[in-house]
Amino acid sequence: MENSIELKKTVLAMIACVLMGLLSSACHGPAAGFAGTYVNHAVGEFSIADDTLVIAQGDDDSFLIHRKTGYNVLNESGKPGHRRYETEEWKAVYDAQKKVLETRKGLVISFSGAELLLENSRYRRTN
């Protein structure tokens, strides 16, 4: 009789652990892995730019994105001018159906492995 009670307790404990694991993954979901730092270096006809996106997860499926950009405008002979800096902060929400982050500005951010795609720019994850 005691063995039967112990077996039931063990089975119930195992079921509880499985349910907790399922609930935990449902709460954090696949979007939880998006938080991190992503960088991009771009050279164009008129400028050279270095972009950093720092993504932090907020509540539920919301994210805060800090964008830091340093760029040099190229003069007529193609030489870079003084370095200029800009910062922006965006709020984004994870769309589970599309598997993307969408900002209030209408920007869509998608992920592929350690890469982030924002419009036509690819960012490499650094951490």
Can you characterise this structure?
The structure is a single chain. The protein is 21% helix and 52% strand. The protein contains one helix and eight strands. The protein has one helix at 2-28; strands at 36-43, 47-57, 62-74, 80-95, 100-103, 108-112, 115-118, 121-125. Residues 1-28 form the signal peptide. Keywords: Signal.
What is the fold-level CATH name, i.e. the topology? Lipocalin
CATH-derived architecture: Beta Barrel
The largest pleated sheet is described as:
8 strands, antiparallel, barrel
Record field, number of beta strands = 8
Signal peptide: 1-28
Keywords: Signal
Question: How would the blueprint of this fold be written?
Answer:
Elements lengths: L1 H27 L7 E8 L3 E11 L4 E13 L5 E16 L4 E4 L4 E5 L2 E4 L2 E5 L2
Antiparallel strand pairs: 1-2, 1-8, 2-3, 3-4, 4-5, 5-6, 6-7, 7-8
Features:
127 residues; eight-stranded antiparallel β-barrel; 52% strand; elongated
In short:
The chain has one domain: Beta Barrel (Lipocalin). It is 21% helix and 52% strand. The protein is built from one helix and eight strands.
